[in-house]
Amino acid sequence: FGGNTRYTLTLTLNAAANHTFLRPGVTATVNGATATVASNNGSRVILSFQFPATAADPPPQLITIDTVALDIAAPVAGEARLPVTVTGAQFNYTITWSSSDEFFREGVRYTATITLTANAGFTFLRPGVTATVNGANATVASNNGTRVILSFQFPAVPPPPGD
User: For every residue of the chain, which 3-state class applies, written as one string?
Assistant: First the structure.
């Protein structure tokens, strides 16, 4: 049954052989409330009853995300420093980097700011969500239940291979 909906019962009663319904004067109740006699020809009575509205549908239950474990490629010297967007089943996230450098530079420690957005039907544990990046703890900078902002500092960028 749908929430916040009124349902109507229509009931047809047929008299048994050698019996009739009182005309006029048949009354009926449903769950202790008076039903309407829609028709009565003596051998058949049709009743109608409208039930009170059903309770409103409860809000959907959200699935709580309490732990986030991300695998993010570490910056590589000479590669372009671009924002990254990742789509997942429970949440999506974007990564931005702490520097305005166009390319990652050797010896620099870059901080990734990761913004996670919960998908429909999900919420982040508030407070208390924990996060890791590549198995190491990330800092939860903010969490409003639908959006979490993480911060994670990578080790200094090593020299390019072969240097």
Answer: CCCCCCCEEEEEEECCCCCCCCCCCCCCEECCEECEEEEECCCEEEEEEECCCCCCCCCCCCEEECEEEECCCCCCCCCECCCEEEECCCEEEEEEECCCCCECCCCCCCEEEEEEEECCCEEECCCCCEEEECCEECEEEEECCCEEEEEEECCCCCCCCCC
Average pLDDT over residues 14-20: 93
Cα angle, residue 136 at apex, residues 133 and 142 outer, rounded to 5°: 60
Of 65, 69, 68, 70, residue with least CA distance to 126: 65
Long-range contacts of range 93-100, CB-CB < 8 Å, 24 or more positions apart? 93/117
Q: Is the pTM of this model over 0.70?
A: no
Paired strand residues for 113: 96, 151
Report the percentage of the chain scoring pLDDT > 90. 74
How crowded is the C-beta side of 73, counted as CA atoms within 13 Å? 12
Cis peptide before 158 (omega within 30 of 0): no
